[in-house]
Amino acid sequence: MPTVNGPRIFALNAHAGYACQHSHACCTAGWAIPVEPARAHLLGGDWLLPADDGACPQLDRQGGRCRVHREHGESALPDSCHHFPRRSLIDARGTFVSLSHFCPTAARLLLGESAPLAIVESPAAFPGEREYDGLDARDEWPPLLRPGVLFDFDSFTVWERFLVSTCESRGSNLQSALALLANAAEDLRTWRVEEGPLLQWTERVLATHTSAATAVPASNANGALLQRYARYIGVDAYRAVCSTIPAGLEAPLLPDDLDAVDAACVAPGWSARDASLRRFLGAKAFASWTAYQSCGVRTQVAELVATASVLRVECARACARSGRVLDADEVVEAVRMTDYLLIHLADRSALTAWLDAAEDTRAETLAGS
User: Fold this and answer.
1) 3-state secondary structure of 97
2) What values do phi and psi take at 159, rounded to 5?
3) R_g (Cα) of the chain, nearest Å
4) Alpha-helix residue ranges (DSSP H) falling in the chain
5) DSSP structure class, residue 345
6) Dihedrals phi, psi of 144, to nearest 5 degrees
């Protein structure tokens, strides 16, 4: 992927103070790291190959620091290490920097912040002179509203900000927030030229859903989602995501007693952790590659619904390991493993194709749209 300098930098406020805290999650993940030719003499070859326990050969186990980072500075790191956990989207509006929450520092920053989640410009952690690696969409059309109809950039920005704020703060709980997004997406994609400028339409439609944000009863949430997004809900959705993992990579193992763990450990703590879970969903709605790689807003909603399903299963896996009812530590671990699966294991093309099934016009007919 190209490495570029963006004239304007955007990030989430929760990530605006990010700095590496040397947790070594990336250094012990078992990743084989390519080394650029200019750094090969310094690092002793073209690859950094992990030891049997997953540790990078440049990790000083006793000192707890990367030798390259410590002795030569961040700029001497291989590109993969230099950019992690940053995951950027570059388009005509600027550079949007999100983080992989597989990094424990990123996860704790997101979940430990109390201020409402918001998109900010020129965050201190991501200076304009730094290079950012990611999906380069600068020469692309804006994302699709629906198959055959494009957003304009201003309208898409309004939609993106609505996704972030709705996931975190609107509706009565995570499920009703997703239902609100599903309903808003359906209304938004009915735009026709006769309705007037798309920007004004987007603002008007989303303002209506914002004012009605608390009016989605929890009892109606499942129905609203199941109408179109049933395949992205539950443990079967988790298995579908795992099915996109390329051969040679190890898929996560589910506990044999998954349902029992969910009932005994996850369900009792799920509501109490709703705010943290929703912040993670809001973060996933920001700087979304799916917006550019898919056929419309339904696919973006499908990704958030599927993410919530993966997160629920990862909460169960975390509780199974700890033997405790879902608490803050289990949520951090579940968030980390959700991004590990969605970002670092799953095949992006196969995952997007599965999500894009939400745009199927045959589904519209079946749903009576």
Assistant:
1) strand
2) -65, -45
3) 21
4) 37-43, 67-72, 79-83, 104-112, 153-169, 174-188, 198-211, 218-229, 235-242, 258-261, 267-270, 274-284, 290-293, 297-322, 328-339, 348-356, 361-367
5) I
6) -80, 135
The pLDDT of residue 216 is: 52
172-191 pLDDT, tens digit per residue, is 789 889 999 999 999 999 99
- What is the torsion angle, in degrees rounded to the nearest 10, for the CA atoms of residue 230, residue 236, residue 241 and residue 247? -150
What is the CA 9 to chain-centroid distance, rounded?
18
Backbone angles phi and psi of 219, in degrees to 5: -65, -25
Q: Using CA atoms, how far apart are residues 174 and 166, in angstroms rounded to an integer?
A: 9
**Dihedral of the CA atoms 145, 369, 311, 117 (nearest 10)?**
50
The residue to which tokens 């990579």 are assigned: 249
- Do 88 and 289 contact (CB within 8 A), yes or no? no
Instruction: Give the distance, in angstroms, between the CA of residue 73 and the centroid of all CA atoms in the same chain.
Output: 29
> Mean pLDDT across the stretch 341-350?
97
- pTM for the model stands at 0.92
Please state, in angstroms and rounded to a whole number, the distance separating the CA atoms of residues 352 and 300. 10
pLDDT in tens, 150-168: 999 999 999 999 999 999 8
Residue 290 has pLDDT above 70, yes or no: yes
Place of tokens 């079967």: 236
Give the chain's end-to-end CA distance (angstroms, integer). Answer: 39
- Measured CA distances, 321 to 258, 340, 347, 360 (Å): 12, 17, 26, 39
Tell me the C-alpha distance between 167 and 159, whole Å.
Answer: 12
Q: Quick one: DSSP state of residue 18?
A: -
Q: Give the count of beta carbons closer than 10 Å to the beta carbon of residue 247.
A: 4
Alpha helix ranges (H) inside 45-197: 67-72, 79-83, 104-112, 153-169, 174-188
How many residues are recorded in the chain?
369
How much is the pLDDT for 228? Answer: 87
